[in-house]
Automatic annotation (TrEMBL):
GO terms for molecular function: sequence-specific DNA binding. Residues 30-91 form the HTH asnC-type domain. CDD domains: HTH_ARSR. SUPFAM superfamilies: Dimeric alpha+beta barrel, Winged helix' DNA-binding domain. It comes from Pacificibacter marinus. The gene is lrp_3. GO terms for cellular component: cytosol. It holds the Pfam family AsnC_trans_reg. This is Leucine-responsive regulatory protein. Keywords: DNA-binding, Transcription, Transcription regulation. GO terms for biological process: regulation of DNA-templated transcription; response to amino acid.
Length: 178
């Protein structure tokens, strides 16, 4: 009789633990296993679900549920391949600081459209300080960068543009600290 009671108590605890996990996931709090999953995916998003489950120490079903929740919550937004830009001849990285006099919704819409439709612009940030925006342009050479610059200033009015040319990449596309 005591064995049945002990088993019954264990079942209740397991169900409660699972419910607590899903409550945490819905509020986007990550536990140790979630962090391990995210770290592994940042290193190799092509890892099989079975290998990922083994790596983080959970069953394949538990790993699948966690991945589904991380996707549902927007913590994971797809997966991409890391590409060696130099092997594609994309040797020039330019950080472009942009200042504008205009801050209207209409101007911002034009600016977003211009930068998002320029494939050489890899990253765009609205920043605080002397400039309003910082762009990361990845291209093959100075002539290619100048073509990007000319296309950009034809599409949108800018007050000032200052370009900083990277001489060396010490660390690029590093995984997030989770």
């Amino acid at each position: 009789m005591t064995t049945l009671k002990a088993n019954f108590v264990i079942i209740i605890i397991v169900i409660h633990t699972n419910t607590a996990y899903y409550d945490r996931m819905n509020s986007q709090k990550l536990d140790h296993i979630d962090r391990l999953i995210l770290q592994a995916l940042q290193q190799d998003s092509s890892i099989s679900q079975r290998d990922l489950a083994d790596l983080v120490g959970v069953s394949q079903n538990a790993c699948w549920r966690r991945l589904q929740n991380l996707n549902k919550q927007g913590v994971v937004n797809g997966s991409v391949a890391k590409i060696d830009r130099k092997k594609l001849g994309l040797d020039l990285v330019v950080f472009v600081m942009v200042r504008t006099r205009k801050h209207s919704t209409e101007w911002l819409k034009l600016f977003r459209n211009a930068v998002l439709n320029t494939p050489e612009i890899a990253d765009v940030f609205r920043i605080a300080g002397d400039y309003d925006y910082m762009l990361k342009v990845v291209t093959k050479d100075m002539a290619s960068y100048d073509a990007v610059y000319q296309r950009l200033i034809e599409q949108i009015e800018l007050e000032a543009v200052t370009s900083y040319f990277a001489m060396e990449s010490i660390a690029e596309n590093r995984p997030l600290a989770i």
